[in-house]
Amino acid sequence: MGVNVIILGHIPTGRVDCLEAFSWNYYKIIDRFEGTIVGQYMAHTHQDHFSMLYSEEPDNHPTGFQFIAPSLTTYTNLRPAIRVYTLDGEHQDSTYRPLNAETWLLDLDRANEKNETVWELEYDTVSAYNLTWLTPDTMQELYERFREDRNFFERTFWKFKNHVQQPASSCDDECYKNNLCEIITGRTGDPDICKDISLVKQREFFLKNKMC
């Protein structure tokens, strides 16, 4: 009888504030058990994004991805948010893989003016990104679309990451390149992931955007 494993964590393993030894060993575990580990759910950054993990074999195929959820905790320039996941279960052939993810934002104006708690759906992943499945392969395809279509990246990922309608100019060339790097960084201190961005520059970006 097969076993499906869901991992709930806090610090995404690609962050500089994740211990490097733990991060690299975790990466190897995902590689070894990619058929068993069906979901990885992280937080810590207060922002809404995801990161990819890859095989160490020559084909370097995607072995998994981490949903990184926004936070209910208030933070500068970020609205309180909650994430709702829909999983494939529970039935006879359940995979427990994610089918969709919704992000809901608190209406701060209404909370302040009327003392009412109202949550508004910001987006759902499947509809916003025009996806059918949420698998390592489809998330890799989404990343590649971000690389090919910067306007799409700004209208979706960059907007959702910050919970607000960010003007395109707020993510300059360096910001764009670093965000793409962040998406494919599943372990900290890896010199082979973003070869056009030095580890020093990657560290500077992560520390500048360190939320906790």
What does this structure look like?
The protein is of the alpha/beta class and 212 residues long. The chain is 33% helix and 21% strand. It is built from 7 helices and 7 strands. The strands form 2 sheets. A 4-stranded mixed sheet has the order 1-2-4-3, with helices on both faces. A 3-stranded antiparallel sheet has the order 5-6-7. The longest helix has 13 residues. The termini are far apart. The mean pLDDT is 89.
Brief summary of the model shown:
The chain has helices at 20-32, 108-114, 125-128, 136-148, 150-162, 173-183, 199-208, and strands at residues 5-8, 37-42, 49-54, 62-68, 81-87, 98-106, 119-124. By secondary structure, it is of the alpha/beta class. The strands form two sheets. It has a four-stranded mixed beta sheet with strand order 1-2-4-3, sandwiched between helices.
Please render the helix and strand layout as text.
Layout: E1 5-8, H1 20-32, E2 37-42, E3 49-54, E4 62-68, E5 81-87, E6 98-106, H2 108-114, E7 119-124, H3 125-128, H4 136-148, H5 150-162, H6 173-183, H7 199-208
Parallel strand pairs: 1-2, 2-4
Antiparallel strand pairs: 3-4, 5-6, 6-7
